[in-house]
Amino acid sequence: MSMNLNSLDRRRFVRGAGLALALPLFETFRASAARGTEIASPPKRLGCFYFPDGVPMPLPEDPAYGDWSWFPHGAGSDFQFTKCMTPLQPLRQELTVLSGFSHPAGRIVHGHNNADQFLTGAPTGGGDMEYHNTISLDQQYANHVGHETRFASLVMSTDGGTGTARGAHTISFDHNGKPIPAEHRPKRVFDMLFVKSNEDAAKRLALSQSALDDLLADARRLRKSLSTHDQKTLDEYLESVREAERRVEKAKQWLNAPLPQVDADHLNLELTTEEPRQYLQTMFELIYLAFKTDSTRVATYQIGRENGVGRSDHLARAIGFNLSHQLSHETKKPDGWKNFGLYCQFLNEEYARFLTKLKQTPEPAGEGTMLDNTLLLFGSASSAFHLSRNYPLILAGGGNMGLQHGRYINKAGANPQGGAWDGGTEPWQKKATNDDLPLSNLFVSMLHHLGVRTESFSDSTGRIDLS
User: Which Pfam families does the UniProt entry name for this protein (predicted)?
Assistant: First the structure.
């Protein structure tokens, strides 16, 4: 009797085998499509990428406007990329550029404070305002699909860790609004994904479970003697303990599952930002490998943190400049727009390399390419100098999810706010010249295309037509 493996429910199969494991993706499953038999839907992936410091936005009367304005000229399907965006020209039909979107809570905040809320839309504020964040878009989707893969999500950044409030080194936040530490060392990411842990792993997991059990038992006894306020504080703490418990349980389930085999001979896993172009390429390659092996279906990468702090500010050295953030301050100097534009061109070039690889890779166990089944958001929470409006955004992939590309959705109008900073009032302090749409509207639409039926996210007021 022949068995169509593609028709099997993944979770039911692995439960029947006695292990709560998701099946890997097999190239041989593609043969069933050639025979005309029905195949299961391929996995739907989400990747989100953030770059700091905004983009070049010379005003229309500026001679640099034609070549170095980040946003395309035109609208709809009739648009032209500027020199900033030329690396993306071969992928024109695989992406959509958007303007006129931002988070309402962030519009009157200095651009250096905005990476924290790029994927959350939360009113994280600035100055002395109380800091509180909410769940990020990637984690909302990870809650939906994370149980099907070894890792619920992959969180990466160039600077690593969590950073500080309003100075994040991560764009991923859990359901309590707590920052999820990002990994910046390529070797650590690779080892986590593809190198088997040592024989003591099971013992460590058992000890962790025992310690958590003891902690929860002690906490239940303690709770009876606490005030209402302290009980709430304890409950919030215990929620983080339960999350740790869930991670331990998942780790135990995957402990004996074979790790994917990948060809990594071309990777230098010891790279740092002292070799910025190769470092960026390696980080994108690790995400590609994680997606290809179905190790995770959710990934974020914060390319740099705001305010020119940290190792990510060295990335501009890939094209002969010193510090990345400094370029956004020097646009009023001769060739200032061009220099800033060349840096954005470099980021777009490496991002285009990543998209191209996804496009050239057939989907394992499915139809189309990996790009067809991967929805990708690339952008920043600033546009012009520290301006927290009209975010520069590129949405790519997801052709098998019903997205239609090859267009520029321009909601900012013909004359968006911008210009160089002359040392006086900064653009973010000036009155808005256009009413942006809530970026969370886009997030709701993205979730729908990913198969998550929700009518709201953060401060959304509706959806955006992406089909």
Answer: HXXSHH
